[in-house]
Design a protein that fits this description.
With about 160 residues, the chain is mainly α. The chain has helices spanning about 5-10, 25-45, 60-80, 90-105, 110-115, 125-150. Helix 2 packs antiparallel against helix 3 (about 60-80). The radius of gyration is 20 Å and the shape is flat.
Length: about 160
């Protein structure tokens, strides 16, 4: 599959989270989104000079919004192609939500917001926080690993192999 076919396929399946996506289809679409984002950022820099530093311009924001759902759908279908549920794509978000919930229930948030990070490294909280941060660091790497795995040959529970 060539890049133009992959982009056309992913845009045609804008909201489709069922089925399977081959490795080239997914990674060519990711490359397309990155390149399109870079072009939009350069256009923003030329047309709308930044006023407060590193904020994203309107064109790059529109590109990000327009490509978010098809990129998520393609990743979801890619997970299906490797024989995993598309929910596995959300593991890093689950880890981040878990850490935030843990901190909210165990640490007084006012000192942390005030810049006193020493509160985070007291007693058992620091051990649990260290383990949670390790999971939060490793989980995107695991998802990336799954996205790079070869397709399952033949049909699986999510459909026929992509053609």
């Amino acid at each position: 599959m060539r890049m133009t076919e992959a982009v056309r396929t992913c845009l045609r399946k804008y909201f489709r989270f069922s089925g399977r996506a081959s490795r080239p289809e997914y990674w060519y679409f990711v490359l397309f989104c990155v390149l399109l984002g870079m072009v939009a950022s350069f256009a923003d820099a030329a047309l709308f000079p930044p006023s407060t530093g590193s904020e994203e311009g309107p064109l790059a924001s529109l590109v990000s919004l327009a490509t978010f759902v098809p990129l998520l759908a393609a990743g979801w279908r890619r997970m299906h192609d490797t024989g995993r549920s598309g929910l596995y794509l959300l593991y890093p978000l689950i880890a981040i939500f878990g850490i935030a919930s843990f901190l909210a229930f165990t640490v007084e948030i006012d000192p942390v917001l005030g810049g006193d990070l020493g509160v985070l490294f007291q007693d058992t909280v620091s051990i649990v926080l260290f383990c949670a941060l390790l999971v939060a660091f490793v989980s995107p790497l695991i998802v990336l690993w799954w996205l790079t795995r070869p397709s399952q040959p033949g049909p699986n529970t999510y459909g026929d192999a992509p053609g």
